[in-house]
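May I ask for a single protein's sequence together with how it folds?
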Amino acid sequence: MCAIQDSSKTNILSKRSARETLTWLDAPTNEWPEEHLADFKSLLTAFQSRYPNAINPERDQRLEKLHKVFRNRFAHFVPRSWSIEIDMLPPLTMAAVDFIEIAMKQDQVMMRTNGNFKRELAANLLTIKDAIRLDYGDSVGQSP
């Protein structure tokens, strides 16, 4: 979101929420409208439109799978038996970490964050990558 938001910060909201917020900004009333973030796919598409070469197709597929298979099934839990193929999870997790690293290195984000935040984020991402590689091997970190 940091890498794609505009100055009004409404382009990261759902269409309805953005419309209500922009209407409020044109003619403020007593209450700020309730904001609803756009869905993940819309935000990822917006990121890819703005930075077309930042995410390769394989990483995009892994992010989609991580979102659809894992996030949505946890967030919208329907009682059923469920298992995780352990070999599938590390590459999906690494794709998410890589995406965060790519997004946070975009100029729009770099201009808005201070040095301490950048150093902490870099250290935390490195720690996560090292832990995944330690547990699952170096090949997991070799996402193109």
Observations:
- The chain is about 60% helix and 0% strand.
- The longest helix spans residues 115-136.
